[in-house]
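Let us practice reading a record.
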Amino acid sequence: MDRIELKRAGFLKGEITPPPDKSISHRAVLFSSLAKGASRIKNFLAAEDPLSTMKAMKMLGVDFVLPPALHSRVEKPHPLIASDSPCEASFDLIVHGHGLAGLKEPPDVIDCGNSGTTIRLISGILSGNPFFSVLTGDDSLKQRPMARVINPLKEMGARISARDNDRYPPIAIRGGGLKAINYVMPMASAQVKSSLVLAALYADGTTTISEPQRSRDHTERMLKAMGADIAVDGLSLRVNGGRASAGGYDLSPVDITVPGDFSSAAFFITAALIIPDSEITIRNVGMNPTRTGLLDALKLMGAVVEIRDLHEVSGEPVADIYCRGKADLKGIDIGGDMVPSMIDEFPILCIAAASAEGTTNIRGAAELRVKESDRIKAMASELRKMGVEVEEYPDGISIQGAKQLKGAVVESYGDHRIAMSLAVAAMAADGQTTINGASAVDISFPGFFDILDRLGQQAA
């Protein structure tokens, strides 16, 4: 299913539970792999990116107890899940970690697929381990910048080389012998921060990492719960290193329940708001405040969104989200501290902006040029096809809203979030929309189109 055709929905109505959080699924497997003993992970995301992380850690000697149906998907080459696979969205597993010093040299090149989280975070881990390894990925991942991780890891003493003067994968690492550093990040990035935190666990001394704005903090929360010596002070955090083989501490195994992914819920939140008479309740959504900037933006635009039954699961806030449309959304200006907390939601925010009255300006988002695709360029191009007036900037976009979207033939660019955002736009657009590259949704949200179809009531 690499092409899908969608028509305007009369309205969307019902309840859904989004797939498990992708960021937390990655980290649960990675950190449990470094613990000493058995960790249990409930509601792990069965999508391509987290399975890339699991496959990588398996090559490094970590043992997993999986449902029988998942064994072949972890063993076989990419894609780990075919686009027509009837797999469930989640599963439970047990991770048998052998401690911080318990990883083994991989027998082959580690394929990270399409996952930037996998390649960047594992680079930090491998930099602390005294063996040789090589990380690569698909064609998209090979074009994503890695110098932002490689340069500070080199400052810590890691021996790393990469293609094009250390800019792009593949990455070769001969690890070990790391020292603590004080590092000021030039831009907020949870992936870079997490990679350095993981390397710091292996380094001699105390590493300090400072970021200009607060990025998602799942790494700090989870590692502290596992016994890592981490202290957070505003926009800075300190990590005291201590490898088990050097007489330091080891991480403790934990039981983790992964909440629903807010980034996946964002598509249905926005769909409910821009399609008249829609009413959707989204259950069990992770509400980490470093992730929910889209809600703040939508409320400033005039959206009707209610947070219900807020509680905590495995150290993360979780709630139900109720939303209905159509509110009279208004264009707003977005920039600065808001951007890091909604970096993954940029494509769907553009769809909301296209349906709002007036102009929405999004600036300070240059990071979007180097995600799975150039998301600024991609959204500008595809919105124009749907009749929207757009102006593109190096670090953002200006969208003139309130015009009725028009069906068109649009491209996903192999980017899962763009594919899902365009699907939401199609449900609000006149006529038929054809999305090329629709199978990209399997990277984070298997079953997305089935849920969208179930909620949709066909327009007369």
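A brief commentary: The longest strand covers residues 36-45.
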